[in-house]
Design a protein that fits this description.
Layout: E1 9-14, E2 28-44, E3 53-68, E4 76-86, E5 92-101, E6 104-111, E7 116-123, E8 126-134, E9 143-150, E10 153-158, E11 161-167, E12 176-180, E13 186-196
Amino acid sequence: MAWPATVLLAAETVNFDQATPSAAPPGWTATKTSQGDARWEVVADASAPSAPNVLRRSGKATFPLYLKTGTRLQDGFVEVKFKAVSERKDQAGSVVWRAQDADNYYIARANALEDNVEIYRTIKGRRIAFKEVAVKVTPRVWHTLRADFAGNTFIVTFDGKEVPTATDDSFKEAGRVGVWTKADSVTLFDDFRRGAN
């Protein structure tokens, strides 16, 4: 599916290299859907796409969210590089867009246990999958996940290849963007990018 020509404005990249290791980076809000205790912190990682630092999510929570402060995008894109490191219940990296609050938002998730990329909507705390594509997601390897969104149309790319495309009208308003994981995932994130159309 070809994406219509647009003018990209207000692009931003966050690589966590100026943040203090072992602390949460400034400019982000930690929250969650449901329950649990997730930890978000900056750590050093020599394998990072833009060394030396990355954002690491650990701990256990149902659906942890990490939202970029000051972002209200209606149409645009969100992109991140991620590495699913370990754990048994889930090994995933995800991007979030049009987040209204901790219980209402869209997600694109790449899962190294299931080898797929899915698009979800979370409505009133309930996560509902509505598009899935089988694709190899190698654990402990850096990947790039991106979602472009305009109106009710979403195009997700994984490592530069278009995967799920979908349409949905649940959230039409501008919302925050960020990253997301599930359960006990230990996931590293780097080079978070977002931009408005």
